[in-house]
Amino acid sequence: MIADNLKKINSFFKLSITNKKFSSYFFFFIVSLSFWFLTVLSKTHETTIVIPVSYYNYPNDLIAVDSLVDYIEVRVKSSGISIVTFNLFNNSQVDLNLNLANSKPKGNNTELFFNLNSNRQKISFILGPSFEILDVSPSKISLNFAEKANKYVPIHLDYDITLRQSFWFSSEISMSSKKVLIFGEQDVLDLIDNISTTKLVITNLDTSCFRSVPLKIPEGIFCDSSDVFVDIKVASYVEDNILKKVSIRNLEADCNLKLFPSNVVITLRVSKENFSLLETDFLEIFVDASRLMNQKYLDVKFEKLPNGVKIERIYPNQLEYLLIKD
Length: 326
Prior knowledge:
Layout: H1 2-18, H2 20-42, E1 44-56, E2 62-64, E3 71-79, H3 80-89, E4 94-97, E5 102-106, E6 109-115, H4 120-127, E7 132-137, E8 140-147, E9 149-156, E10 159-163, E11 167-169, E12 174-175, E13 179-184, H5 186-189, E14 195-196, E15 200-205, E16 209-214, E17 222-223, E18 227-232, E19 234-245, E20 247-249, E21 255-260, E22 263-271, E23 284-288, E24 297-299, E25 301-303, E26 309-315, E27 318-325
């Protein structure tokens, strides 16, 4: 179907070229159409022009509770050429200074309003001298504001970070701020317990980094910050096994306790700079005899674990025992 139409159009233009008489008619038709178009554009017309509205100097102690008017409709009279030119090339907007708005109480809120008839000079300046303004709709822009409450809430870091093999977090992930100040209507603020970040996704991380992460600020809420800085420290580690004798604590003086086994194997992860710790007796492994209470097993515990060392596992982590009383 499309191919047939294209063939007809092609035939039409070939005919207009080969047929001199037809070409003459076609030429005069285009000229006449052009004169008609220019005549129409030169005449005066009435039409409606849409002009965007923007606001600035928002009051610090108030928050808008309704959606703001985005545009106004201006009924104008002007030449066709002026109307076409404005619609094609003019991107101006009406800027309204909220510091200069009229105000009055409205229930528990405050109403700020502009009478657009008093702003016709600003609208006329945007349109230009060739336009006559017949009507402006709406004639009044009314904005409802409520008192802005505020409170501090904690920041929740949402992240999915995977580390390259043989790397670990050398310290806890830290943020530049743990709390953020939010503003809004009191009943809305009462429903918010924290502000979450957008999800921070990093894969195969093998070097420390410092990232800016945007905050997910709920609709109708304002915040004194739009993002938070996250400090991620990672380092390479080595893994080693050590055999350690288990000591006994809090055993009554008239008792003797036998452990089975008496030694455990501890798998340690140590940062490379702390590898020399493995050659020292830095770790205490013990069971607490005060927690016997007819239990069949005693849990293996540890203490004095220095920074840069992590216990991956203790095997076995529970020991059988034999209690002998003198």
